[in-house]
């Protein structure tokens, strides 16, 4: 039975099994919490610029909330699998689905954004476009597949690298997570050259060529269905749908709450959109209205409605997952859980349209994306030309530039591709503030010693 072969305790690196009070999947969660890559998310933009006096979500708080939603989804689906397939599960699998699937989904949700650069999605675009703009000078230095990785830079693929790659001077296996958790964040389990719009598991890429062997090990250990050997394409792991749903639920709703706190969205607009969605799924809307009648604080009213909306979307996602479970196991579902719901629910469609119009195209959001794009582009241009020169060909200014690269990101004995990935590791790992400060210093805008 495939359900007995969807998980493994194997992890990256050469760690021997240890006895501990925590399960392997609880240890994954804890390792992510204490990792530097996760900690840096506290100063990476989610949507809005990070203001001083008004709290909005950054990528760390977003990831924590996604993890909370993911744990709920994993818990219910684990019980569903045990209740409906008990006769087909071995004892280890019964224990896994009943007690540990929720830990896997929570851990995967926690680290789903660790590969995303600073400044939101404009950071990803800046890295990809840098190579597109410099194609004439750079493309001949890489293989076709390596070049595809660079011009299609993708935060999901970078997450696999961040979590598994051994940097200079560091331990083997990166964060050393289980293959189960790593497979659960692979929304696009294909190489960049195989990406294709309109196909959910090939919309973007899921791993770089440098991590291809690692990804093949992951795929084999959790029995991912292979769609193509050349180019390499797998079907999604069944757990991915739950991680994706948790992420979709949070960003669809919480971005609206942030916009309200910042005064971008009025209380009445936010309330009306949330209430309509709750009404479409909750026959007990009267109880919600009674609760609102005693809440006079605008932020508290929106927080209460946000909680009710998230609960409604969790329940709907669970329903759709269960209904489509056989398709999910076969790898044949062709639409995200929340997209399936969105296609049949006008209220969620209206929230999405409103968000695009009033939030994602707001002046402050566009400004940070433009600024981030330029900062990331300039940083790459400062480091990539020098790193690709032979040491004997480097001028003094090239050598000075490379002195700013920490040693763990310098692969002088590697290929040009590996050298460039080292630079991307450094730049994509930066927080918004660090990237901005370094940009200002190398451009001569800020001069002087700072600690």
Automatic annotation (TrEMBL):
Keywords assigned: Hydrolase
Species classification: Bacteria, Pseudomonadati, Bacteroidota, Flavobacteriia, Flavobacteriales
All residue ranges annotated as the HD/PDEase domain in the record: 55-261
Gene Ontology biological-process annotations: dGTP catabolic process
Protein species of origin: Kaistella jeonii
Protein name: Deoxyguanosinetriphosphate triphosphohydrolase
Database matches in InterPro entries: dGTP_triP_hydro_central_sf (IPR023293), dGTP_triphosphohydrolase_C (IPR027432), dGTPase (IPR006261), dGTPase-like (IPR050135), HD/PDEase_dom (IPR003607), HD_domain (IPR006674), PHydrolase_assoc_dom (IPR026875)
SMART domains: HDc
UniProt keyword annotation of Membrane present: no
PANTHER family: DEOXYGUANOSINETRIPHOSPHATE TRIPHOSPHOHYDROLASE, DEOXYNUCLEOSIDE TRIPHOSPHATE TRIPHOSPHOHYDROLASE
An example Gene Ontology molecular-function term: dGTPase activity
Pfam families: HD, HD_assoc
């Amino acid at each position: 039975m495939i359900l007995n072969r969807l998980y493994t305790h194997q992890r990256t690196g050469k760690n021997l099994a240890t006895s501990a009070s925590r399960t392997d999947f609880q240890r994954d969660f804890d390792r992510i919490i204490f990792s530097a890559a996760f900690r840096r998310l506290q100063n990476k933009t989610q949507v809005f610029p990070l203001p001083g006096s008004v709290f909005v979500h950054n990528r760390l708080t977003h990831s924590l909330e996604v993890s909370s939603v993911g744990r709920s989804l994993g818990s219910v689906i684990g019980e569903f699998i045990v209740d409906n397939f008990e006769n087909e599960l071995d004892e280890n699998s019964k224990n896994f689905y009943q007690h540990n699937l929720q830990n896997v989904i929570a851990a995967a949700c926690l680290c789903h954004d660790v590969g995303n650069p600073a400044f939101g999605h404009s950071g990803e675009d800046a890295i990809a476009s840098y190579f597109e703009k410099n194609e004439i000078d750079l493309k001949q230095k890489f293989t076709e597949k390596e070049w595809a990785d660079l011009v299609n830079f993708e935060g999901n693929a970078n997450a696999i690298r961040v979590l598994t790659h051994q940097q200079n001077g560091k331990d083997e296996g990166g964060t050393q997570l289980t293959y189960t958790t790593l497979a659960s964040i692979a929304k696009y389990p294909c190489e960049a050259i195989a990406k294709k719009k309109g196909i959910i598991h090939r919309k973007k890429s899921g791993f770089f060529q440098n991590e291809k062997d690692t990804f093949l090990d992951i795929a084999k250990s959790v029995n991912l269905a292979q769609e193509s050997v050349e180019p390499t394409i797998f079907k999604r792991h069944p757990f991915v749908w739950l991680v994706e749903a948790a992420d979709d639920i949070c960003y669809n709703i919480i971005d609206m709450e942030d916009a309200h706190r910042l005064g971008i969205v009025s209380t009445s607009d936010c309330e009306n959109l949330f209430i309509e969605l709750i009404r479409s799924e909750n026959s007990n809307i009267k109880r919600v209205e009674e609760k609102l009648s005693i809440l006079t604080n605008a932020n508290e009213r929106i927080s209460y409605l946000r909680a009710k909306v998230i609960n409604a979307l969790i329940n709907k996602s669970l329903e759709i997952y269960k209904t489509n479970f056989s398709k999910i196991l076969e790898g044949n579902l062709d639409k995200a859980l929340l997209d399936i719901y969105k296609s049949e629910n006008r209220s969620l469609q209206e929230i999405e349209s409103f968000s695009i119009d009033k939030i994602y195209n707001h002046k402050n959001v566009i400004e940070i994306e433009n600024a981030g794009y330029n900062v990331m582009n300039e940083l790459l241009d400062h480091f990539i030309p020098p790193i690709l020169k032979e040491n004997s060909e480097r001028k003094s200014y090239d050598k000075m530039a490379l002195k700013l690269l920490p040693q763990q990101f310098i692969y002088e004995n590697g290929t040009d591709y590996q050298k460039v990935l080292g630079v991307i590791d450094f730049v994509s790992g930066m927080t918004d503030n660090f990237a901005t400060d370094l940009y200002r210093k190398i451009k001569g805008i800020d001069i002087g010693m700072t600690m």
